Amino acid sequence: MRRVLLVALLLPAALALGAAAASPPSAAELEAELVCPVCETTLDQSNAPVAERMKAFIRERIAAGDSEQEIKDALVAEFGPGVLARPPEGGFGLLAWLLPLAALAGGGIAAILLVRAWSRRRGPLEPEPPLAPELERRVDEELARFEG
Amino acid sequence: MARRARLVGQGVAIGLVVLLLVLLAWSLVRSEGGDLAAAAARGERPRAPDFTLERLDREGELRLESLRGQVVVLNFWASWCIPCKEEAPYLERIWREHRERGVVVVGLDAKDFRRDARAFMRRYGLTFPIVYDGPGDTLSAYGVTGFPETFVLDPDGRVVEAFIGAIDTDPDRMRLRAALERALGR
Q: What ipTM is given for this predicted complex?
């Protein structure tokens, strides 16, 4: 009984995974992930002649049964890695992902160091010096008048 | 400790400013290519940036420097560019008429599919050397912002004349022929 239950639970997920792996890539998704080399916007935002050629190429390759990665690789072989809207997550492209994180970490460390330096420079709070007797008397009079 | 932190902070800030200045200088040097056409128009002969690119008309690569001693008509084009279609037959004619005089026409196909470029070459019967720069890396070095653009180089690899747009009018064609004669030293 447990086995049947397990199969019933896992089967839809396995089928969904299988369907995703077998389904052809979506032209719309690819057009949003690839850049027109002339206008440098994503293909779905461009109607430049070369962008139209690239869209036709994508549809042609999808019809021929190529995977998303194969289509991207073919376009990179023609137009270079700049055709990818997202830089590759490896090699030199990894820099594009790591540099912002490094800059964020560096900025955070710099901010912490600066705050610590400022807080130390100011030192502990010293008590205010007492008011002059004449001034204290006038303040008392003004307060008494205000309250009375 | 506070003094050390301050020094580190100042060092980081100065380093960032220097880095930004270096990047600015680098981008200015890279965009210098845009001045090639202007310099040629002023009568100067700026050096044409070298490149080594894959050939589309045959196997192998072509290095611009290897053409030293010849006058080069370097034409930037793409198969999807409409004025390039109008200009291509004339460039073929220039190549056929002047190749015996030490003139070589070089087509540089950029931002294009190789197969589209080859179909274009067949359609217009182009027989001069054609190189391929899919990513268009050479365009910024020459300051090319659109297609077609053509540069006439003298035998020392210096730009004698630049044409922004198609060479498709009689005055442009006369200017090209005059530039060839100047480059040939006649």
A: 0.78
